[in-house]
Amino acid sequence: MDNFQIETAQNISIEQNVAGIGDRILAFIVDMAIIVMYMIFSGLIMTGTSGDRGSEIMYYMVLGLPPFLYFLLWETFWNGRSPGKAVLQIRVVKKDGSRPEFSNYLVRWLLRFIDITLTSGGVAVVSILLNGKGQRLGDLAAGTTVISEKERLSIHNTLAVDLPENYQPRYSQVSVLSDHDIQEIKNLFNKARVEGQHHIILALSKKVSDLMDVKLEEKPMEFIQRVIMDYNYYTRQ
Fold first, then answer.
1. In this structure, are strands 90-94 and 13-17 parallel, antiparallel, or unpaired?
2. Model confidence at 13: pLDDT above 70
3. Helix/strand/coil (H, E, C) string of 129-160?
4. Residue 92: in which H helix or E strand, if any?
5. Looking at the DSSP assignment, which residues form a beta bridge with residue 148?
6. Which of the four pLDDT bands, split at 50, 70 and 90, describes residue 10?
7. Distance between CA atoms of 196 and 80, rounded to whole angstroms?
8. Could you report the per-residue pLDDT of 150-204, keeping only the tens digit for each?
9. pTM of the predicted model, to two decimals?
């Protein structure tokens, strides 16, 4: 899984975890399975309708329109997710991590006919692999990407963090915080960073600086990372 850094208007650096090509393919398979089941179920229900022209038009609309608009409607009204994306915990976002607008979803949906439909997904796969930011042609045109919201299990999911040799702490005021405080700060910080929730990191940095009674002179993300590391430094002494 690749990742890349973005810088927001609030000077917060956010690491986006790009959704892997495997997750995107599996999400597509799940969505296609749902579409096929819908068409089979709807077809069985509509079979009993009369054979006049009006019924024929209704038949094709019921069977064809929802699958045709499936990805556009789900992603627009479910915050960048389709059922398949939700199962695989991936989501469409703008390149700056914010929520796309309808125009962004529309552009990437229109280009999926080139990316996926006409080329059986070949163009999309090549674009994603070469781009490095999880973007197929539709994403490049729409200014979007697809990120993973899965939590990465590592030492960073615990209270402890690795400190470099000869680490020099900056905030002795971290002593006013407890283990529980640091764990909560770390959990909020990691979740906000993965999901690109810049406002949460900004609010968290202000709250922590107030609790420690220090002046916030670093970027919010750097400040929170420094606080976590300083706390680990002092509690190991």
1. unpaired
2. no
3. HHHCCCCCHHHHHHCEEEEECCCCCCHHHCCC
4. strand 90-94
5. 90
6. very low
7. 13
8. 765 444 445 566 677 788 888 988 888 888 888 888 888 888 888 778 888 898 9
9. 0.62
Distance CA 202, CA 8 (A): 11
Q: What percent of the chain has pLDDT over 70?
A: 85
User: Rounded to an integer, what distance in angstroms lies between the CA atom of residue 114 and that of residue 62?
Assistant: 25
Instruction: Please work out, in degrees rounded to the nearest 5, the angle formed at the alpha carbon of residue 230 by the alpha carbons of 210 and 148.
Output: 85
Taking the CA atoms of the chain, what radius of gyration do you get in angstroms?
23
Identify which of 81, 97, 99, 101 has the alpha carbon closest to the alpha carbon of residue 202. Answer: 97
Dihedral sign of CA atoms 32, 38, 43, 46 in order: negative
* Segment 103-124, tens digit of pLDDT: 999 999 999 999 999 998 999 9
Instruction: Look up residue 210 and give its two tokens.
Output: 């107030």
Element (H, E) at 13: strand 13-17
Phi, psi (degrees; rounded to nearest 5) at 90: -125, 160
Number of Cβ within a 10 Å radius of residue 175: 12
The amino acid occupying position 57 is I
- 24, with CB counted inside 10 A (0-12, 13-18, 19+), is buried
Question: 80 by DSSP, 3-state: which?
Answer: coil
Query: What residue spans define the domains of the chain?
Result: 3-148, 155-235
Helix 179-195 with 198-212: angle, nearest 10 deg? 160
Q: Which residues pair with 18 in a beta bridge?
A: 147
